[in-house]
Structure formats: C-alpha cells, structure tokens
Design a protein that fits this description.
alpha/beta; 6 helices; globular
Length: 177
C-alpha cells in the first residue's frame, strides 16, 4: 500500500545522500518503492551484473496493473541520479540493453532529465533523438525525471504519469508537461 510519508522519506534520503554510491542507491530505492506499489509488480533483480553491463532494476510485471499492460512481463529500469541531464551515449547504452534482450519497452529515470529537445528538433543531437530513433525501430523508452517524482502524491498520480509519458512517445511529446 502506497504511503506518502514513506515515499517523501525516500525522496529526502535521495537529497541527503553524500557519495555517488549513496546517491545512486537512494535513487534506486525510491524508484523500486514506487514501482512495487503497483499491483502485480515485484523486483526480480537489482544492480544485476552481467559480463559487460549492469541492470539497475529488473521488475516482474504480472500485467494486472492496467497502466502496465502495454509493457512486457519483464521491465528494465535504468536510474540516473546525475546532477546534469543524461546525454545520448547513456540513453543509447540503455536502448542497447533492451535490444540485446529483444525487449520493446523500458523505463529511464533521470533526476535531471535527458539532453535534447523533442518538440523543437535539435538537428540530431541529444538523448531525445536516440529515443526518437529507437521508436522508429519499435523500441519505446519512457523518461521520468525528478520533477515528476516530486509531484507524486498518490499512486494514481504515478499511474497518470506513466500513461502520459507512454502516450507522449507517439505524439512527439516525451515531456508532455
């Protein structure tokens, strides 16, 4: 059951973290908490190390939550609690992880968003253009930022955000504010 006090405490822990490892761990804990409040979602892997890559969060999606029925049974989440927007190389790396697993949908949570301007075209630069290219291949990546997380006060806010970001991919509005 989603508890706003617990959630706000996790947000505060992200802000209080000192080292890069602490910041990353706190951010992943916040994201894990939020997703596992959704019906039929459980964590099946966290910081899973493979030979040449790491998966931040791997979720099981029983597809009982209406907003997640368009996602696969397995959902990969990448968390970046960086002080600057995440650039194209990191987003391309995440999309490559999805490709190698033949997955069509992933979630990229970047505290300060990603580079580029989806709405006004930035001549092929920035992470937003990587998302646009992946979409043409049938790979969908929704991006959630810290402002989005700050605005969640109940589980329905989170459900609405997922739906808004997912639909935004198809109407050229990744950040559909």
């Amino acid at each position: 059951m989603f508890d706003l006090t617990t959630y706000r405490g996790l947000l505060a822990a992200v802000d209080a973290a000192q080292t890069n490892n602490e910041k990353g761990d706190a951010f992943e804990s916040l994201c894990t908490y939020l997703f596992t409040q959704l019906q039929g979602v459980s964590v099946e892997g966290k910081d899973s190390l493979m030979t040449s890559e790491e998966l931040d969060i791997v979720l099981w999606n029983a597809q009982t939550e209406e907003v997640l029925k368009c996602f696969e049974y397995t959902i990969i989440i990448e968390c970046k609690n960086w002080t600057n927007p995440v650039g194209a190389p990191a987003l391309d790396n995440f999309i490559s992880k999805l490709r190698r697993r033949n997955m069509k949908t992933g979630i990229f949570i970047a505290a300060n968003g990603v580079t580029g301007d989806f709405l006004n075209s930035n001549n092929g630069s920035g992470a937003i253009d990587i998302i646009r290219t992946a979409l043409a291949e049938g790979i969908r990546v929704i991006v959630i930022n810290r402002d989005d997380l700050n605005n969640i006060n109940c589980l329905d806010d989170f459900r609405s955000l997922i739906k808004k970001r997912y639909c935004g991919l198809f109407i050229s509005k990744i950040f559909n504010n």
